[in-house]
Amino acid sequence: MINGAAGIMFQEALAKARRMAPLSVHDLLALLRAQDQEAEMLFALADEMRAAFFGNEVHLRGIIEFSNYCVQNCLYCGLRRGNTELSRYRMDKEELMEVSRQAAALGFKTLVLQSGEDPRCTGAVLAEIISGIKKELDVAVTLSVGERSRADYAAFKEAGADRYLLKHETADPVLFRRLRPGATLSDRLRKLWWLKELGYQTGAGNMIGLPGQTLESIALDLILMRQVGADMAGIGPFIPHARTPLKNCRGGDFAFTLKVLAAARLALPGVHLPATTAMDAVRKDGRKKALRCGANVVMLNVTPVHYRRRYCIYPVRAVMDKEPEEQLNTFQAVLAEQGKKAGTGYGHALRLAAGNLVIARALSPWQSSPVE
Ligand code: SF4
Predict the structure, then answer these.
(1) Residue 315: what pLDDT?
(2) pTM summary value
(3) In CATH terms, is domain 54-362 a member of 3.20.20.70?
Protein backbone atom coordinates (compact mmCIF):
# COMPACT_ATOMS: atom_id res chain seq x y z
CA MET A 1 0.00 0.00 0.00
CA ILE A 2 1.35 3.44 -0.90
CA ASN A 3 1.27 5.75 2.08
CA GLY A 4 1.31 9.52 2.27
CA ALA A 5 0.51 11.92 -0.55
CA ALA A 6 0.91 9.34 -3.33
CA GLY A 7 -1.56 7.01 -1.62
CA ILE A 8 -4.08 9.81 -1.17
CA MET A 9 -3.77 10.82 -4.82
CA PHE A 10 -4.32 7.21 -5.89
CA GLN A 11 -7.44 6.89 -3.75
CA GLU A 12 -8.80 10.19 -5.05
CA ALA A 13 -8.18 9.15 -8.66
CA LEU A 14 -9.89 5.82 -8.06
CA ALA A 15 -12.89 7.55 -6.47
CA LYS A 16 -13.16 9.87 -9.47
CA ALA A 17 -12.99 6.92 -11.83
CA ARG A 18 -15.74 5.18 -9.87
CA ARG A 19 -17.95 8.27 -10.33
CA MET A 20 -16.96 8.27 -14.04
CA ALA A 21 -15.67 11.80 -13.70
CA PRO A 22 -13.13 12.74 -16.39
CA LEU A 23 -9.65 11.80 -15.21
CA SER A 24 -6.88 14.39 -15.40
CA VAL A 25 -3.24 13.74 -16.27
CA HIS A 26 -2.47 13.82 -12.53
CA ASP A 27 -5.19 11.26 -11.81
CA LEU A 28 -3.85 8.99 -14.52
CA LEU A 29 -0.29 9.32 -13.25
CA ALA A 30 -1.48 8.30 -9.79
CA LEU A 31 -3.19 5.24 -11.27
CA LEU A 32 -0.20 4.30 -13.42
CA ARG A 33 2.10 4.48 -10.39
CA ALA A 34 -0.02 1.99 -8.45
CA GLN A 35 1.89 -0.88 -6.86
CA ASP A 36 0.90 -4.09 -5.09
CA GLN A 37 -2.46 -3.69 -3.36
CA GLU A 38 -3.26 -0.47 -5.23
CA ALA A 39 -2.56 -2.19 -8.55
CA GLU A 40 -5.00 -4.95 -7.57
CA MET A 41 -7.62 -2.30 -6.73
CA LEU A 42 -7.01 -0.66 -10.11
CA PHE A 43 -7.46 -3.97 -11.94
CA ALA A 44 -10.59 -4.81 -9.95
CA LEU A 45 -12.26 -1.48 -10.71
CA ALA A 46 -11.34 -1.74 -14.41
CA ASP A 47 -12.90 -5.21 -14.51
CA GLU A 48 -16.04 -3.91 -12.79
CA MET A 49 -16.23 -1.05 -15.28
CA ARG A 50 -15.88 -3.47 -18.21
CA ALA A 51 -18.69 -5.58 -16.77
CA ALA A 52 -20.89 -2.52 -16.25
CA PHE A 53 -20.63 -1.59 -19.92
CA PHE A 54 -20.32 -4.95 -21.64
CA GLY A 55 -21.72 -7.51 -19.22
CA ASN A 56 -20.11 -10.90 -19.69
CA GLU A 57 -19.65 -10.52 -23.46
CA VAL A 58 -16.26 -10.44 -25.12
CA HIS A 59 -16.09 -9.66 -28.82
CA LEU A 60 -13.97 -11.96 -30.94
CA ARG A 61 -12.81 -10.37 -34.20
CA GLY A 62 -11.09 -12.13 -37.09
CA ILE A 63 -8.02 -10.35 -38.40
CA ILE A 64 -6.75 -10.87 -41.95
CA GLU A 65 -3.27 -9.55 -42.72
CA PHE A 66 -3.55 -9.27 -46.47
CA SER A 67 -0.32 -7.46 -47.44
CA ASN A 68 2.99 -6.98 -45.68
CA TYR A 69 4.31 -4.41 -48.17
CA CYS A 70 4.93 -1.02 -46.60
CA VAL A 71 6.46 2.19 -47.89
CA GLN A 72 7.05 3.52 -44.39
CA ASN A 73 10.13 2.96 -42.29
CA CYS A 74 8.93 3.07 -38.67
CA LEU A 75 11.85 2.30 -36.39
CA TYR A 76 9.97 -0.27 -34.32
CA CYS A 77 8.28 -2.30 -37.03
CA GLY A 78 9.40 -5.47 -38.78
CA LEU A 79 7.41 -4.55 -41.91
CA ARG A 80 9.43 -1.34 -42.43
CA ARG A 81 10.71 -0.91 -45.96
CA GLY A 82 14.29 -1.03 -44.65
CA ASN A 83 13.79 -4.67 -43.66
CA THR A 84 15.01 -6.09 -46.98
CA GLU A 85 15.21 -9.61 -45.60
CA LEU A 86 11.44 -9.88 -45.22
CA SER A 87 9.71 -11.94 -47.89
CA ARG A 88 6.78 -9.80 -49.02
CA TYR A 89 3.31 -10.95 -50.05
CA ARG A 90 0.02 -9.47 -51.11
CA MET A 91 -3.24 -11.43 -51.35
CA ASP A 92 -5.26 -10.80 -54.48
CA LYS A 93 -8.95 -10.01 -54.40
CA GLU A 94 -10.16 -13.58 -54.83
CA GLU A 95 -7.86 -14.93 -52.16
CA LEU A 96 -8.89 -12.24 -49.69
CA MET A 97 -12.55 -12.92 -50.44
CA GLU A 98 -12.02 -16.63 -49.82
CA VAL A 99 -10.26 -16.04 -46.48
CA SER A 100 -13.09 -13.67 -45.53
CA ARG A 101 -15.68 -16.33 -46.38
CA GLN A 102 -13.88 -18.87 -44.22
CA ALA A 103 -13.73 -16.45 -41.28
CA ALA A 104 -17.42 -15.57 -41.61
CA ALA A 105 -18.27 -19.28 -41.74
CA LEU A 106 -16.52 -19.72 -38.39
CA GLY A 107 -18.91 -17.15 -36.92
CA PHE A 108 -16.81 -14.00 -36.83
CA LYS A 109 -19.09 -10.96 -37.06
CA THR A 110 -16.22 -8.53 -37.55
CA LEU A 111 -13.37 -8.91 -40.01
CA VAL A 112 -10.34 -6.68 -39.53
CA LEU A 113 -8.46 -6.12 -42.80
CA GLN A 114 -4.91 -5.12 -42.01
CA SER A 115 -1.85 -4.31 -44.12
CA GLY A 116 1.21 -2.12 -44.27
CA GLU A 117 0.95 1.09 -46.29
CA ASP A 118 0.94 -0.68 -49.62
CA PRO A 119 0.62 1.67 -52.62
CA ARG A 120 -0.19 -1.23 -54.97
CA CYS A 121 -3.33 -1.77 -52.95
CA THR A 122 -4.99 1.36 -54.27
CA GLY A 123 -8.10 2.98 -52.88
CA ALA A 124 -10.16 1.65 -55.80
CA VAL A 125 -8.90 -1.92 -55.36
CA LEU A 126 -9.56 -1.97 -51.64
CA ALA A 127 -12.97 -0.31 -52.01
CA GLU A 128 -13.96 -3.05 -54.46
CA ILE A 129 -12.89 -5.75 -52.00
CA ILE A 130 -14.78 -4.10 -49.12
CA SER A 131 -17.86 -3.82 -51.27
CA GLY A 132 -17.61 -7.51 -52.22
CA ILE A 133 -17.31 -8.58 -48.58
CA LYS A 134 -20.21 -6.40 -47.43
CA LYS A 135 -22.50 -7.64 -50.23
CA GLU A 136 -21.78 -11.29 -49.67
CA LEU A 137 -21.07 -11.67 -45.95
CA ASP A 138 -22.95 -10.63 -42.83
CA VAL A 139 -19.99 -8.98 -41.11
CA ALA A 140 -18.77 -5.60 -39.94
CA VAL A 141 -15.52 -4.52 -41.61
CA THR A 142 -12.71 -2.81 -39.74
CA LEU A 143 -9.78 -1.42 -41.71
CA SER A 144 -6.24 -1.03 -40.47
CA VAL A 145 -4.34 0.04 -43.57
CA GLY A 146 -2.53 3.12 -42.35
CA GLU A 147 -2.42 6.70 -43.53
CA ARG A 148 -4.35 7.29 -46.75
CA SER A 149 -5.87 10.21 -48.62
CA ARG A 150 -9.24 11.56 -47.51
CA ALA A 151 -10.61 10.41 -50.87
CA ASP A 152 -9.54 6.83 -50.12
CA TYR A 153 -11.12 6.94 -46.65
CA ALA A 154 -14.34 8.26 -48.22
CA ALA A 155 -14.30 5.52 -50.88
CA PHE A 156 -13.82 2.80 -48.25
CA LYS A 157 -16.71 4.18 -46.20
CA GLU A 158 -18.89 4.41 -49.28
CA ALA A 159 -18.03 0.77 -50.01
CA GLY A 160 -19.35 -0.22 -46.59
CA ALA A 161 -16.41 -0.15 -44.17
CA ASP A 162 -17.61 0.33 -40.60
CA ARG A 163 -14.48 1.04 -38.59
CA TYR A 164 -10.91 2.22 -38.96
CA LEU A 165 -7.96 1.62 -36.67
CA LEU A 166 -5.23 4.25 -36.85
CA LYS A 167 -3.10 3.95 -33.75
CA HIS A 168 -1.48 7.24 -32.82
CA GLU A 169 1.38 5.24 -31.22
CA THR A 170 2.50 8.05 -28.90
CA ALA A 171 1.11 11.44 -27.92
CA ASP A 172 4.65 12.83 -27.71
CA PRO A 173 5.19 14.68 -31.02
CA VAL A 174 8.99 14.59 -30.78
CA LEU A 175 9.07 10.87 -30.06
CA PHE A 176 6.50 10.26 -32.81
CA ARG A 177 8.67 12.02 -35.38
CA ARG A 178 11.76 10.12 -34.25
CA LEU A 179 10.03 6.74 -34.47
CA ARG A 180 8.19 7.39 -37.72
CA PRO A 181 10.62 9.18 -40.05
CA GLY A 182 8.89 11.64 -42.36
CA ALA A 183 5.60 11.55 -40.45
CA THR A 184 4.12 13.87 -37.85
CA LEU A 185 1.66 13.39 -35.03
CA SER A 186 -0.42 16.34 -36.22
CA ASP A 187 -0.91 14.69 -39.64
CA ARG A 188 -1.90 11.48 -37.95
CA LEU A 189 -4.45 13.27 -35.78
CA ARG A 190 -5.84 15.15 -38.77
CA LYS A 191 -6.49 11.78 -40.41
CA LEU A 192 -8.22 10.51 -37.29
CA TRP A 193 -10.50 13.54 -37.47
CA TRP A 194 -11.23 12.84 -41.15
CA LEU A 195 -12.25 9.32 -40.23
CA LYS A 196 -14.58 10.68 -37.55
CA GLU A 197 -16.07 13.18 -39.97
CA LEU A 198 -16.70 10.42 -42.49
CA GLY A 199 -18.69 8.46 -39.93
CA TYR A 200 -16.27 5.67 -39.08
CA GLN A 201 -16.09 4.08 -35.67
CA THR A 202 -12.47 4.94 -35.03
CA GLY A 203 -9.67 3.34 -33.10
CA ALA A 204 -6.50 4.94 -31.80
CA GLY A 205 -3.85 3.35 -29.63
CA ASN A 206 -0.32 3.39 -28.34
CA MET A 207 2.67 1.25 -27.50
CA ILE A 208 4.00 0.92 -24.00
CA GLY A 209 7.72 0.97 -23.26
CA LEU A 210 8.97 2.79 -26.34
CA PRO A 211 12.54 4.04 -25.90
CA GLY A 212 12.34 7.66 -24.74
CA GLN A 213 8.68 7.41 -23.64
CA THR A 214 7.73 8.92 -20.28
CA LEU A 215 4.96 8.15 -17.82
CA GLU A 216 3.52 11.60 -18.54
CA SER A 217 3.32 10.90 -22.26
CA ILE A 218 1.44 7.64 -21.58
CA ALA A 219 -1.06 9.55 -19.43
CA LEU A 220 -1.37 12.01 -22.32
CA ASP A 221 -1.99 9.10 -24.70
CA LEU A 222 -5.13 8.27 -22.73
CA ILE A 223 -6.25 11.90 -22.66
CA LEU A 224 -5.63 12.16 -26.41
CA MET A 225 -7.74 9.08 -27.08
CA ARG A 226 -10.56 10.64 -25.08
CA GLN A 227 -10.18 13.93 -26.97
CA VAL A 228 -10.37 12.30 -30.40
CA GLY A 229 -13.44 10.35 -29.30
CA ALA A 230 -11.84 6.95 -29.88
CA ASP A 231 -14.31 4.08 -29.99
CA MET A 232 -11.48 1.55 -29.73
CA ALA A 233 -8.11 1.74 -28.02
CA GLY A 234 -5.35 -0.65 -29.08
CA ILE A 235 -2.75 -0.78 -26.33
CA GLY A 236 0.16 -3.18 -26.23
CA PRO A 237 3.79 -3.45 -25.13
CA PHE A 238 6.62 -2.41 -27.43
CA ILE A 239 8.47 -5.54 -28.52
CA PRO A 240 11.88 -5.08 -30.17
CA HIS A 241 12.28 -6.77 -33.56
CA ALA A 242 15.70 -8.11 -34.53
CA ARG A 243 15.63 -6.50 -37.98
CA THR A 244 14.87 -2.97 -36.88
CA PRO A 245 17.01 -0.11 -35.53
CA LEU A 246 15.44 -0.66 -32.10
CA LYS A 247 16.57 -4.29 -31.89
CA ASN A 248 18.74 -3.71 -28.82
CA CYS A 249 16.18 -1.69 -26.85
CA ARG A 250 14.29 -3.05 -23.88
CA GLY A 251 10.73 -4.11 -24.54
CA GLY A 252 7.65 -2.88 -22.69
CA ASP A 253 6.95 -4.30 -19.25
CA PHE A 254 3.98 -6.66 -19.09
CA ALA A 255 2.76 -5.74 -15.60
CA PHE A 256 2.95 -2.05 -16.39
CA THR A 257 1.07 -2.53 -19.66
CA LEU A 258 -1.73 -4.16 -17.67
CA LYS A 259 -1.90 -1.01 -15.55
CA VAL A 260 -2.17 1.15 -18.67
CA LEU A 261 -4.98 -1.07 -19.94
CA ALA A 262 -6.83 -0.79 -16.64
CA ALA A 263 -6.32 2.99 -16.54
CA ALA A 264 -7.60 3.17 -20.13
CA ARG A 265 -10.78 1.38 -19.08
CA LEU A 266 -11.29 3.98 -16.35
CA ALA A 267 -10.39 6.96 -18.55
CA LEU A 268 -12.49 5.74 -21.50
CA PRO A 269 -15.19 3.63 -19.85
CA GLY A 270 -17.22 2.55 -22.89
CA VAL A 271 -14.33 2.02 -25.30
CA HIS A 272 -13.63 -1.31 -27.00
CA LEU A 273 -10.34 -2.39 -25.51
CA PRO A 274 -8.58 -5.36 -27.10
CA ALA A 275 -6.43 -7.80 -25.20
CA THR A 276 -3.75 -7.42 -27.88
CA THR A 277 -1.75 -10.27 -29.37
CA ALA A 278 1.40 -8.52 -28.19
CA MET A 279 0.36 -9.33 -24.62
CA ASP A 280 0.69 -13.03 -25.43
CA ALA A 281 4.04 -12.37 -27.07
CA VAL A 282 5.55 -11.07 -23.83
CA ARG A 283 3.79 -13.34 -21.33
CA LYS A 284 2.14 -16.73 -21.62
CA ASP A 285 -1.59 -16.17 -21.13
CA GLY A 286 -1.03 -12.42 -21.47
CA ARG A 287 -4.34 -11.86 -23.25
CA LYS A 288 -6.14 -13.96 -20.68
CA LYS A 289 -4.81 -11.69 -17.93
CA ALA A 290 -5.69 -8.57 -19.92
CA LEU A 291 -9.30 -9.76 -20.08
CA ARG A 292 -9.37 -9.50 -16.28
CA CYS A 293 -7.97 -5.95 -16.30
CA GLY A 294 -10.52 -4.14 -18.43
CA ALA A 295 -10.13 -5.61 -21.93
CA ASN A 296 -13.29 -6.75 -23.72
CA VAL A 297 -12.12 -7.66 -27.24
CA VAL A 298 -9.83 -10.35 -28.66
CA MET A 299 -8.61 -10.39 -32.23
CA LEU A 300 -7.94 -13.88 -33.53
CA ASN A 301 -5.68 -14.31 -36.52
CA VAL A 302 -7.44 -15.86 -39.50
CA THR A 303 -4.66 -15.09 -42.00
CA PRO A 304 -3.43 -18.28 -43.69
CA VAL A 305 -0.50 -19.54 -41.63
CA HIS A 306 2.03 -19.39 -44.50
CA TYR A 307 1.41 -15.62 -44.77
CA ARG A 308 1.04 -15.00 -41.07
CA ARG A 309 4.67 -15.90 -40.39
CA ARG A 310 5.71 -13.11 -42.73
CA TYR A 311 3.44 -10.49 -41.15
CA CYS A 312 5.95 -9.93 -38.43
CA ILE A 313 5.59 -6.43 -36.98
CA TYR A 314 7.18 -7.88 -33.85
CA PRO A 315 8.25 -11.43 -33.00
CA VAL A 316 5.20 -13.30 -31.75
CA ARG A 317 5.95 -16.93 -32.55
CA ALA A 318 3.86 -18.33 -29.70
CA VAL A 319 0.58 -17.61 -31.47
CA MET A 320 1.74 -17.81 -35.06
CA ASP A 321 0.86 -21.33 -36.07
CA LYS A 322 -2.59 -21.94 -34.63
CA GLU A 323 -5.43 -22.38 -37.07
CA PRO A 324 -8.48 -20.17 -36.46
CA GLU A 325 -10.57 -23.07 -35.11
CA GLU A 326 -7.93 -23.87 -32.51
CA GLN A 327 -7.67 -20.21 -31.48
CA LEU A 328 -11.46 -20.03 -31.19
CA ASN A 329 -11.59 -23.16 -29.03
CA THR A 330 -8.82 -21.79 -26.81
CA PHE A 331 -10.61 -18.51 -26.25
CA GLN A 332 -14.03 -20.06 -25.79
CA ALA A 333 -12.46 -22.05 -22.94
CA VAL A 334 -10.75 -18.96 -21.50
CA LEU A 335 -14.03 -17.04 -21.57
CA ALA A 336 -15.94 -19.90 -19.95
CA GLU A 337 -13.31 -20.08 -17.21
CA GLN A 338 -13.81 -16.35 -16.56
CA GLY A 339 -17.62 -16.58 -16.58
CA LYS A 340 -17.80 -14.76 -19.92
CA LYS A 341 -19.02 -15.65 -23.38
CA ALA A 342 -18.33 -14.60 -26.96
CA GLY A 343 -20.58 -11.81 -28.18
CA THR A 344 -22.88 -12.81 -31.01
CA GLY A 345 -23.46 -9.31 -32.43
CA TYR A 346 -21.23 -7.11 -34.55
CA GLY A 347 -19.67 -5.50 -31.51
CA HIS A 348 -20.13 -1.97 -32.78
CA ALA A 349 -19.07 1.06 -30.77
CA LEU A 350 -21.10 1.37 -27.63
CA ARG A 351 -22.29 4.85 -28.59
CA LEU A 352 -24.03 3.24 -31.58
CA ALA A 353 -25.20 0.11 -29.81
CA ALA A 354 -26.62 2.03 -26.86
CA GLY A 355 -27.61 5.15 -28.75
CA ASN A 356 -25.30 7.30 -26.73
CA LEU A 357 -22.71 6.86 -24.04
CA VAL A 358 -24.73 9.31 -21.97
CA ILE A 359 -27.27 6.54 -21.52
CA ALA A 360 -24.62 4.37 -19.96
CA ARG A 361 -23.43 7.19 -17.74
CA ALA A 362 -26.97 7.82 -16.53
CA LEU A 363 -27.35 4.24 -15.39
CA SER A 364 -26.07 3.02 -12.11
CA PRO A 365 -22.38 2.46 -12.80
CA TRP A 366 -22.27 -0.92 -11.16
CA GLN A 367 -25.38 -2.49 -12.64
CA SER A 368 -24.94 -6.18 -13.33
CA SER A 369 -26.54 -6.27 -16.78
CA PRO A 370 -24.94 -4.90 -19.94
CA VAL A 371 -26.01 -1.62 -21.49
CA GLU A 372 -26.24 -3.13 -24.97
S1 SF4 B 1 4.06 0.51 -38.31
FE2 SF4 B 1 2.71 0.42 -40.09
S3 SF4 B 1 3.34 2.16 -41.36
FE4 SF4 B 1 5.04 1.74 -39.94
S5 SF4 B 1 6.41 0.34 -41.03
FE6 SF4 B 1 4.99 -0.92 -39.83
S7 SF4 B 1 3.32 -1.43 -41.19
FE8 SF4 B 1 4.44 0.30 -42.08
Answers:
(1) 79
(2) 0.93
(3) yes
